Input
Amino acid sequence: MGLTLGPVSANLTFMKTLEAEKARGNFTKFLSMVLDNQESFQIVKAGVPCAYLVPAAGGKCDSHEFAADLADAGLSAQDRRALAAAVRKGRKTLKPLKNPWG
Output
């Protein structure tokens, strides 16, 4: 039981899975990997996810980077349609920003 690589829920990124015992024994090493390489880890205990070790800052992207990541994700046509529908639905729920100064 060490590290495995796999998809994380509906996210388009991959996160390494790390057993809790290994995380405990090498926490400084994994923390350095997060800080230096922007890596992310899902920590599991007995195969059950219990925590995430992710960069606190960064991870943001603009629309062009997001589009490039989506193009590389290899989504099926059904997944692309579902994502497009979710984005359209999300846009409808957005309200205009209010000007706090009047």
Notes: Confidence is low (pLDDT under 50) at residues 7-12. The two ends are 58 Å apart (CA to CA). Residues 37 and 55 are 9 Å apart (CA to CA).
